[in-house]
Specification:
The protein has eight helices and eleven strands. By secondary structure, the chain is α/β, with parallel strands linked by helices. The chain folds into two domains: 146 residues, Rossmann fold, CATH 3.40.50; 75 residues, SIR2/SIRT2 'Small Domain'. The chain has a six-stranded parallel beta sheet with strand order 5-4-1-9-10-11, sandwiched between helices. The chain starts with a strand and ends with a helix.
Length: 234
Amino acid sequence: MRAKKKLVVFTGAGMSAESGIPTFRGSDGLWEGHRVEDVATPEAFERNPELVYEFYNERRRNIFQAEPNAGHLALVAAERDWDIEVITQNVDNLHERAGSKRVLHLHGRIDQARSMEGPELIVDLEGDLNMGSLLPDGRRLRPHIVWFGELVPAITEAQKIVRGAEAMLVVGSSLQVYPAAGLVYELPMGRPLVLVDPGKVGNVRVGFHHVQKGGSEGIPEGLEYLRGILEGAG
């Protein structure tokens, strides 16, 4: 049997937007009426943890009500033909709920929390977080989210995945948030890169192909393009 081609799929907020999850960061720079500095930084959590808890509790409730869209399902179906690893900037669990087998979350997951003192200790959440959310040993819990100003621990693993891929599909990302946006430059030169996004894009990198559609329509088209390129190359 012929080995499956290794494909890395990198997804951003546009991937989840088709499931009704807003991108949160508005044109005015606010996140649902809040300044980023007030709800998405370590300093904000120290200053007003109640506000930060409630901000993420509300986002978590909205995400739990959302369902995977046709784009998520198209990636799952593609696992029949491709060896796929998903790297996502999104903090929802829609890829997992759709059935994707290998998903790396760069910016954490909203359905999880972690210890303030031991960031490696991560627990699953079923309800809200609040000031009384503690581990059995008394350690306080915070959202398992990479906030602005914090390091992205998973970036090293993501870079390794991209370097080992034979092709890359980017869906719904503006490629403006670093270090995640720099992952496209980890793909070895000469290997095909497809960007699926309904908006106009700049010169992402030499030789990329732009499918100017949303994920639901654009993912199957992007996969078909990649199949033609890779099969044509033997």
